[in-house]
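Hi Y.,

Following your request, here is the sequence exactly as I used it, all 788 residues.
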Amino acid sequence: MNRKTIKKLEYNKILKMASKYAVSAAGKEQILLLHPETEQRKVKRMLNELDEASRFLSSAAKNPVEYFTDVKKYVEKVKIGGVLRPDELLEVMGVCKAAINAKNIILESDVIDELPFLKDLAFNIYNCKSVIADISNAITPEAEIADGASSELRQIRRELRQQNANVRAVLERLIRSQSVQKYLQDAVVTERNGRFVIPVKSEFRSMVPGIIHDQSSTGSTVFIEPAGVVETKNEIARLEAAQKHEEERILAEISRNIRGNGADICDNQDALERLDVLFAKAGFCNAFDCVKPDICDKLCIRISKGRHPLLNPETCVPIDVTIGDGFKTLIITGPNTGGKTVSLKTVGLFILLCQTGFFLPAYRVTMGIFDDVVCDIGDEQAIEQNLSTFSSHMTNVVSIITGLRANTMVLFDELCTGTDPVEGSALARAILTEISKKNVLTFATTHYSELKTYAFETEGMENASMEFDLETLRPTYRLVVGIPGKSNALEISRKLGLPDAVIESAQNTMSRDELNVNRLIADIEHNNLMAQKAREDAEKSREEAEQLKRHYEEKTAQIAQKRQQEIEKAKEKASQIISEAEAEAKDIIKELRYNTEGMAGKDKNELIESSRKRLADKKKQYETQKVTEKKVGLTADKVRPGMTVWVGHLSNNGTILSVSGDEVLLQVGILKLKAKLNELELPKEEKVEENKGRNPSDHKKIELKASTISSTLDMRGLTAEDAYIEIDRYIDAALMSGMTEVTLLHGKGTGALRSAVHEYLRKHRHCDKFRIGKYGEGDTGVTIVTLK
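Below is the corresponding structure, written out as tokens. Let me know if you'd prefer a different format.
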């Protein structure tokens, strides 16, 4: 396709809009690189694939593709013996998980059997479960190597923690020693160059045996590592080296596994990128209410209610265009700013988008496949190249004619403008005649009146015009095929206030034939406008009638369905009643036969009468419908603090502590909770009495004991969102257990989880204050929270 045409028609702007619907950077980039195809087979395949994606989104309402990154560079890295970092491993796992998730969502769809392309693409996605398991077991979400990555690493880190604790303990005892405190600048333990040290006054440096690692800027303080912890710190250094070696071994082992699965991982990424592009195109087309174009073997284009994608769909006036059926050249005339150029661009853009595999914003579109789209649109006057308006246009026209090939769409905007009208119109006729000799379609806009006559007289050419409302002096932007247009310069000038004498003088200079033609065109335009309005009114009435028809058909179907359901229920109920009645009657007959043997007449009559009464009671039971009165909750004017109410979902009475709108705070036993007024009733003592004799498993009981609530919540390994949920649950349980202070264990790591927890606690309604743990409490790995 012609690059200049693609730029002129703003094709790349459409691709940029569509790329926003992609979830990955790779998907966005691929959309921006899309290019129209010229093979009918490929175009049909792309449209069918997009049709499947669009149908899937309509049924699932969810894009199955999650965010993923490009990991092919990591696969290449491990192929040459490289070792991936933890953050790179997480990206690889992300691609594997995204691929499996997309596969599951697609294959579990209710309509998947109707979508063969998506089914086949999803079915061929590899699981890569071993890669996911290796990475998830060894790497935390914070991109750190987990203790459980290997038994050796767990043991090394355990020893490290113990040795660090020993060093801390020795140093703590030392700074508390009366014999040493007098030499210290501050009774604290700090760290210099990775070694634990204590601050000693410079003049007493010889009094504290050890190694000096640093001094203050003033020289008054030296930082000494006491001799008693040097050996322990050496052991710590050995353990840290062993830890680093084990971590490198773990990363190398996982990288080798990725190398073995590299081809599958790359195939999964390719499948994800293809799905991302496809569903991005589907999302774009659904957002712009696009339809799948019908592809035909004939070189033609038929557009019904087509809209330019870059215009506001709510205000854009759709156009109807047909070319290739009876004529190959369409000449559009009409006033400036009437929509001629937009119509021209819409046709060209529809061809490019269709052949790139996009649906089109229209009611219906049928088109053939074009080998090229060429155009001359806009004024490319260039002073530095000594090109005037006419010269720039003619340069493009020459290029088009000399390079023109079959199956091409040619678009001319203001053909041969910018020169003498007589010569310009003659040249335009000659150019259109030359182009019409080839198997191409041509759209041309013009103001030359001679071209209107030329189109009438020449076989294979047709006039079209942009409709204009003379009453409002506004274009309607409707393209009318078969009727030539006019500039309406005199009428517009009259409406704008140009004196009538000037208008009449202009009319006198025009020939009678020109005036008659203009009047004829004006009458045709007016009549066409009225007919169009009549058609629109008729179409609107027809749509309203069809909508009413559909509404009543749906209502009728619903009533019939409900009636059938009621009949089925009645049959089922009747069958149940008959079965119960038969069983009851059999029991009574059996009882009568058994009990009346040897009975006196009076006793027998009494038993028969009793049985008859049982049957009558049973009949009455079946004939009577039990009506359960709908429970109505309390209202704000019926409740007050201190009032006792029945809490249905807890099957217990509660006391109202406060009232706020339609919500109250309740005390139910040791539990405080909020409830809606419509969930409460007046106290029902009988319910409490009934519940006394029931098994505890028959109703809800809420028992919270302080002994069952730990004073520490372990959140290590959680994401920030998961941590928020666990904090809420834990604090609620702690409050109900009467606890006033709790510990949140988030670990040290990069500090990301700690920062997220602190930010959340600042806004938490039950948090009075919080602080970082002290030495012995967990240091920066824990946060101590005081509850309100």
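The CA atoms of residues 525 and 541 lie 24 Å apart.

Thanks again,
Q.
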